Amino acid sequence: MREKLEKLLENSYAKYSGYRVSSICVMMDGKEISGVNVENASFGATICAERNAITTAIALGYKKGDFKELHVMVDSDKIGTPCFVCRQVITEFMNKDILVKLYSKTEELTLTVADLCPYPFSEENLW
Q: Are residues 52 and 8 in contact, defined by beta-carbon separation less than 8 angstroms?
């Protein structure tokens, strides 16, 4: 998976920060859905690699329960964790026991969604 993520980093559009990120969602059926960060001069319009991959999977017809793993790589020596907007999207579509594997150029860290998001905001909070 590391090699696929490294290759995918080349597609990142990180013109402003230089902080390239790639992500791959592995689905229960074995399909891999890729995403990269895409920055914008209007910084709020930037999309993170994680949300890019997850929303692409949803657009392809996948639903909650169809996700098996999430892999995220940053082009850095230090592991980066998903931002809180991405964490919210992760908790919306991924079960708590899904593995989230984080990579830097030299390190790896494996967590579950529950580890990454111990106190999620979900539909139960709306009622």
A: no
Interhelix angle for 49-59 vs 84-93, to 10°? 30
> Which helix (H) or strand (E) segment is 71 a member of?
strand 67-74
Is there a catalytic annotation at residue 50? yes
Spatial distance between the Cα atoms of 42 and 30, rounded to a whole number of angstroms: 36
Question: How far apart are the C-alpha atoms of 13 and 30, rounded to whole Å?
Answer: 27
Distance (Å, whole) CA 115 – CA 110:
9
Give CA–CA dist 95/67, Å, rounded.
Answer: 8
Token pair in block for residue 59: 């657009």
Selected catalytic residue, list 6, 10, 50, 69:
50
- Burial class for 78, CB neighbours closer than 10 Å (0-12, 13-18, 19+): exposed
pLDDT tens digits, 7-62: 999 999 999 999 999 999 999 999 999 999 999 999 889 999 999 999 999 999 99
